[in-house]
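Fold tokens
===========
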Amino acid sequence: MKTTNSNRAIQIWLVTGVLAFGLLPWYAIQDTAWYSVLPEVFSGAEAGSGLLQMLQHGRVWLAFGLAGLGLAAISLWVPAGRPQSVWLLAGGLLGFVGLLVTGFTIGARGWSFEVLNTTFGELTVNQYGIGIGAFLTLLALVMLSSFGVARRGYFKGDLFIASSVLGCTALLLLFIVFPVSKALHGAFLDEQGHWALSAIFERIGHERVWGMGCLAGGVRCGVAWNTLFLALLTATGTVTMGTMMALLAERSAGPRAQTPLRVVALLPIITPPFVVGLGLILLFGRAGVVNQFLEYAFGMEPTRWFYGLFGIWIAQLFAFTPIAFMIMRGVVQGVAPSMEEAAQTLRASRTKTFFTVTLPLLKPGLANAFLVGFIESIADFGNPIVVGGQYSVLSTDIFFAIVGAQYDQGRAASLAWILTVFALAVFAIQRGLLGKQNYTTVSGKGDAGIPMALPDGVRRVLNFVVYPWLAFTVVVYLFAFAGGFVQTWGRDYTLTLVHFKTAFGLEWGDFGLVWAGTAWNSFFTTIKLAGISAPITAAVGLLIAYLLARTEFRGQGWFEFAALLAFAIPGTVLGVSYILAFNVPPVELTGTGLIIVLSFMFRNLPVGVRAGTAAFKQLDKSLDEASVMLRASTFQTLRYVVLPLLKPALVAALVYSFVRAMTTVSAVIFLVTAENELATSYIIGRVGNGDYGVALAYCTVLIVLMSAAIALIQFLVGERKLGRRKTQVKLKAAAAH
């Protein structure tokens, strides 16, 4: 049965590769969708299939793909096992490596050679960017190669696991490692463009980067230490606040309070990053409400006390606490009540049970949330640029090195190396702390116990900290978005809707409804690209988390770090690296909507990976094993057993991917074009022109839209059902007793 099913998978990918090679456009057509040129696939010079390009247009190197598919097809007539693996590996690797090497070798330079015995003389052939036909053919060759690896006994012979590992590895290498390494390579080039190992040390080995003056009574420390200190503060603060919110939402708040609590807690994540900074400036800036009140009440002269480390830290707490909350909420839900009940049966108090049983079981979530918060902080440049003042961090220095008058790509790459080392160090520490310890709390056994109510002291602390923070969040947003409803903030506070009309006006024309507002184009483009990227990001992120949690293979640590690498790199560097890597064939994507989708996807991928990893730590492997023993395939086990238990992680990945795609700035600021303008680029343009009213009106519309999207995602995914009763039941019973 298994042999028949696996041969069927081989047949499917062989047919896919052959059809893509012979019937689909091989190259990408600029400014045109691939399906619109299908009628020209057998005649067009640019729109032709791989077979036509090879036979009629002199691109003989494409024969590698056809030869690879042919060799792999021989495996269908060979017994399963090592004999079959020889043909699958030979065909898959010949086709994939051959096409890849020739594609990158030829690039945009063309290939000139002498055609013998013809009247054409010398023929020059140009190379274009790969299209849908080339992509599907290469994907089929990767899948066939992975089947060959599985046939040799690796990955326990599981075709799904082998194809997932190798397929995800290919994606990570192409869209993260390759562009990032291409950008970081500039750190080792001198002013003349020659390789020099000393170049990176000359650029970063000075006091501005590593100075310790602030510890010896000086004005400031080096930018590297500033970044590290801020990241540690932010990660600690976000994990603490996110855990408190998750405990309050799942173990203390009543049903009526849970929904508002979750909405307000997630509010900062669904807004463009500079909105929080603007709201904080209106409150605490030199002309803000707080300074004006202090001057009026106590005669204190307004100062810029808020700008600097404290201001950045508060802004980053607002921005990144929701991520920790989403990760920790699923982990808190997964804590088994039976373990808490066992401790209480042994006469442990609720306080002792909480600190010796509940909190230790949250360790995977705490570690993952800390890692994400740390990396988000070191890569953030929106908040430091708005409220940083004289407090410099690496991300802002990198930004100015790229977009400033100096345009020093080598210095930007050198500083980016520091961020990468910081991220790698924290990643290694996290793995060392978690180690091989077991945190399983969800198993196949029935567990209908009641989650333990929080100790009174803990509950009072949560109420004292969380509710004022949520109220503070509401106040900041009220100030920030009031600007969208007044004529001119600071001068004319007359209520008006003119800013909404400018951005989203509708009119009736000769041919019906006209989208007259200036923001509609960017609005629809952003929704389309974010809607495409979010489900793909969540699916790939959770798949990678499954591979990391349930399989063991060589290079697993590097595989995991590659998945996190895009987070460790500032968005501006990632955007520039995509331009450098994908501006020429064979992967020519600059100027298209696809490069923006890929930037969204791989920039946001780590959150799905970390949320999924934390959730998998709680799931007993016996669930997978029981499903496999009942003759379910690995894919069926993942689909029907594991995925329903990962709903909190799935919601976190979907929500984060969608809203970050809607609100991101730095990663796509260099990738947008007139045809693919995004909401954030439109808003930045308005802010640059001083039109804050329209910018804030647009932000208000985005918040309403993303709130509805989050509610829809939660409704479609649903809640995870573990067969447990709510904590409130126990509280009511105790009160009645």
Q: What stands out?
A: The chain has three domains: 2-152, 207-439+463-490, 493-717. The beta strands are 111-114, 122-125, 486-488, 492-495, 506-509, 512-515.
